[in-house]
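Q: My labmate handed me this sequence with no annotations at all. I'd like to see what the chain might look like in three dimensions before we decide whether it's worth expressing. Could you predict it?
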Amino acid sequence: MLALAGWIAPAATMIAAIMTAANLGTRVTGWGFVVFSIGAVAWVIVGFGTDQQNLLLSNAFLLIVDVVGVWRWLGRKARYDAGASAATARSAATASPTLFALTKIEGMPVRDAKGEVIATAVDAMAACDGGGISYIVVSEGGVGGVGERLHALGWGEVTMREDGITTRLSREALVGRPELGADAWPATAAAAGIA
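A: Here is what I predict for the chain of 195 residues:
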């Protein structure tokens, strides 16, 4: 049992770390915490079996943290996502404007008019007065955030759908936009020269 736990513990911990760090959505992150929990239990067994009190206690604490992660991502957050998806579906079936969840904007693909993915949404900036979205920040180029370039798209330049964002801009037009520095996002869409 101890030998098996000794193999499961590091394998589960590494797999769970990849699952949660990848930020592939609520369900994958939640299941990452389930795998983290399996790893923590295995580490507790290893700590107990090898009389390593520090390993046992630290992983018993991490098991509690992992259970909170499971509850947050597979319980609470999944419930919120289900509510948002239901509201989107109901709004699409009525004459009212179709809704989308702002929490899902991060990581959404941005497609040009031909359907080619030209960027990925990073965030949206909304006005405190009235709550309208001023602009969307998108990332293009680079790999895993290294070498990426950030640009702003005005709310009037995009069409939102649950499966992504469409813009009339081409990749070349987007790349030709001024690059946003990490600490220099514009105060308004007009300040960025966009609609």
